[in-house]
Amino acid sequence: xxxxxxxxxxxxxxxxxxxxxxxxxxxxxxxxxxxxxxxxxxxxxxxxxxxxxxxxxxxxxxxxxxxxxxxxxxxxxxxxxxxxxxxxxxxxxxxxxxxxxxxxxxxxxxxxxxxxxxxxxxxxxxxxxxxxxxxxxxxxxxxxxxxxxxxxxxxxxxxxxxxxxxxxxxxxxxxxxxxxxxxxxxxxxxxxxxxxxxxxxxxxxxxxxxxxxxxxxxxxxxxxxxxxxxxxxxxxxxxxxxxxxxxxxxxxxxxxxxxxxxxxxxxxxxxxxxxxxxxxxxxxxxxxxxxxxxxxxxxxxxxxxxxxxxxxxxxxxxxxxxxxxxxxxxxxxxxxxxxxxxxxxxxxxxxxxxxxxxxxxxxxxxxxxxxxxxxxxxxxxxxxxxxxxxxxxxxxxxxxxxxxxxxxxxxxxxxxxxxxxxxxxxxxxxxxxxxxxxxxxxxxxxxxxxxxxxxxxxxxxxxxxxxxxxxxxxxxxxxxxxxxxxxxxxxxxxxxxxxxxxxxxxxxxxxxxxxxxxxxxxxxxxxxxxxxxxxxxxxxxxxxxxxxxxxxxxxxxxxxxxxxxxxxxxxxxxxxxxxxxxxxxxxxxxxxxxxxxxxxxxxxxxxxxxxxxxxxxxxxxxxxxxxxxxxxxxxxxxxxxxxxxxxxxxxxxxxxxxxxxxxxxxxxxxxxxxxxxxxxxxxxxxxxxxxxxxxxxxxxxxxxxxxx
Length: 708
Known about the structure:
By secondary structure, the chain is α+β, with helices and mostly antiparallel strands. A hairpin with a 4-residue loop joins strand 9 and strand 10 (114-127). Helix 1 packs across helix 12 (588-594) and helix 7 (411-428) runs parallel beside helix 8.
């Protein structure tokens, strides 16, 4: 390939990408087909069938299209509920009558447009004995390479008596127990077994995911939407206050099926007379290949399930370390004189006020101390907008500290907090909302809206649904829920689950990987368990090292917590380099890729095996356009000593030849444009792209891949 100037190279790549994107979209066929009393759900990956006959509903088929293999050895159970601690009703017990079904599209909405990502069907089933009870099955099938999401709505049809689901089987699948490796995640670290997966804890947590790779080179993954753990009481239990998550997974342990079953000590849902409430959801995907292909199947599914868009990393300045945590009063006008100008020079995306900015945690009025530094929220909002910066804000939903404040299971309390959030959105242009502290404590009293056995569950579900609705109506709204939500903080070991993720939002996750550092290793470990668009890094630094700056691109959001007014922590050369880097990553041809799905290439030593050591780099990932004609690959040692890797790229087209160009920005701010050769996709997949991070002053590199 003849040498090109950097301007021509990037401009030509952008034009090619935009031209490809301008082509008419392929027609999308219906993904839900209705028979006489059957429903078939189908996308590019799977085909599943649900049938109703003789008063019973069953999952009768689950077919992996790419592997050409059906997985159900017999019809499978879609739910079972023990009612009031007595009799159990099952989906297949013959006691149900079928109601009128309905179908709707699943769409994603942004400020610019909206588009379809799947379809949803609701199938109501009713019975009169032993109690009047309705269960509505809800299936969401996502388009393209994705999976199936399933949950139920449970309704107490009795107008006078409460009804308690004392224990439940959420789903019970007759998946074949053939030679396999089962990968599972109790917290963040991945474990594996050649045998079954039991229901007991692993360490101090419980498995929340099961991904099985059969020896035949295909498999399935089951991801229930769970919390991390469940708080017992609100600080009134000095010990044994960490209960299990709402449900757990049993894969062939003492049974010939794979099931998701509730933990009754954590969840006993009591329905008030005439009440309907959403029950637990599960996500089911299938794949052909190894464990990485299985994790990638979940990543693509999660991207549609959680309606992700505009996922290029957001860099934000956060004042906790020099104001909120220290309890320090900043000089008058500090945000206008220092924080905002420095953030703009560095090319950051947002300025965020952390805890202790308001008069009380329950108000949206700045304290007298904060008014000295920002004047008012209105003045701050206008200045941020004028400087092209977003406005982030820490804001408690309970309005108090750990284990205190408003009970979020109460719809009236959530409505009040929602009103405050809408004021922050509409009047002050807040773009990112951090929700922190132990918000999901247990109210053990029976109230008009919850019972002890379901209070925490109602908190989690109602909060998520409120946030989802706010995001739908305000696509610029970015909710972030920290890992302190479930349990009074145990700083070294805490986490989030899929139940905590709001549309297009993110979380902080810890899970015993790197502690409060929340580094790249923590984020990469989440791949396949939590969406990569939900990952977060705590330790953004003006280090002046591209090794660090490139590492930040892997996650959805990076917090820069150090004081912009401290020249030792914001050195001039490092800030200038950050500005160069951020100007590059905002180029249209770059964000067109980085707004797309994260594609792993090499996430540390043994990352594609059962002996993954994430402490040993280097780390390599990429993004590619839908046609796999253009890709951006990033590699970094991220503080580890390793510098050399043959980066095996499995996400390109085998028969296509790709010109590879080194476009690394070095620590002095210069950008390379060095052709590295032409490689077929098959060679990149099998032999890899040779990467030597020692070629630069710090161990980070970027490559542009373009199909010839």
